[in-house]
Amino acid sequence: GENVGLHLPTLSVQEGDNSIINCAYSNSASDYFIWYKQESGKGPQFIIDIRSNMDKRQGQRVTVLLNKTVKHLSLQIAATQPGDSAVYFCAENQGAQKLVFGQGTRLTINP
Amino acid sequence: NAGVTQTPKFQVLKTGQSMTLQCAQDMNHEYMSWYRQDPGMGLRLIHYSVGAGITDQGEVPNGYNVSRSTTEDFPLRLLSAAPSQTSVYFCATSLGELAGGPGQFFGPGTRLTVL
């Protein structure tokens, strides 16, 4: 059968629009969540994090929303710029050094 | 201050060969980890260390060995390479006990192909 892991979900947005990237996590006991940006040929870069006692956290041009009821995270990027083109991963900390990453979403910016 | 360095950047092996991927850090972080990233996938934890002399298994440890004799270095050994180990390997360090977040730093990666 098809290896769906080879096909990253893709989101295309117009430059200047807002982007929303979604992620479902697996472990209801996880209490720390992180969003990473990965550019081609590089390691992941930290964007923003959130603990389970919060449902929203804002950074510079980014906002993370956490819905524990449905085990869902989203990353909102305001006024998307060409430099935002990358693959975005959510990750959940399942205890100490055990970080579990989602599949990722490729964000492309249309001029 | 180089941060996290990984060598080599690229490597091609034949099935059955062994090799060591090197990871070094100059930030004096106690916590270090190895991840692999397959095409179109997120990173998966192979092994981690909470300090010199202490290592533990992650999600996908089979076929890999690690040791941590110093704070600075955390090599990853492939004992007998298999095509399924073709991947990009990332080393990471962590400032705190809780992995992830602004205190975790990833190296640039080693792209490994096993023929």
Describe it for me?
The complex is a heterodimer of chains A (111) and B (115). With 111 residues, chain A is mostly beta strands. Helices cover 0% and strands 51% of the residues of chain A. Chain A is built from no helices and 10 strands. Chain A has strands at residues 10-14, 19-24, 32-38, 45-51, 56-58, 62-67, 72-77, 86-93, 99-101, 105-110. In chain A, the strands form 2 sheets. In chain A, strands 1, 3, 4, 8, 9 and 10 form a 6-stranded mixed beta sheet that branches. A 4-stranded antiparallel beta sheet of chain A has the order 2-7-6-5, with no helix packed on it. In chain A, strand 5 (56-58) and strand 6 (62-67) form a beta hairpin. With 115 residues, chain B is an all-beta fold. Helices cover 0% and strands 50% of the residues of chain B. Chain B has strands at 4-7, 10-13, 19-25, 31-37, 43-51, 54-57, 64-66, 76-78, 87-94, 104-106, 110-114. In chain B, the strands form 2 sheets. In chain B, strands 2, 4, 5, 6, 9, 10 and 11 form a 7-stranded mixed beta sheet that branches. The mean pLDDT of chain B is 94. At the A-B interface, strand 4, strand 8 and strand 9 of A face strand 5 and strand 9 of B.
Short synopsis of the structure:
Chain A is mostly beta strands. Chain A contains no helices and 10 strands. In chain A, a hairpin with a 3-residue loop joins β5 (56-58) and β6 (62-67).
Topology:
The complex is a heterodimer of chains A (111) and B (115).
Chain A: E1 10-14, E2 19-24, E3 32-38, E4 45-51, E5 56-58, E6 62-67, E7 72-77, E8 86-93, E9 99-101, E10 105-110
Parallel strand pairs in A: 1-10
Antiparallel strand pairs in A: 2-7, 3-4, 3-8, 5-6, 6-7, 8-9, 8-10
Chain B: E1 4-7, E2 10-13, E3 19-25, E4 31-37, E5 43-51, E6 54-57, E7 64-66, E8 76-78, E9 87-94, E10 104-106, E11 110-114
Parallel strand pairs in B: 2-11
Antiparallel strand pairs in B: 1-3, 3-8, 4-5, 4-9, 5-6, 7-8, 9-10, 9-11
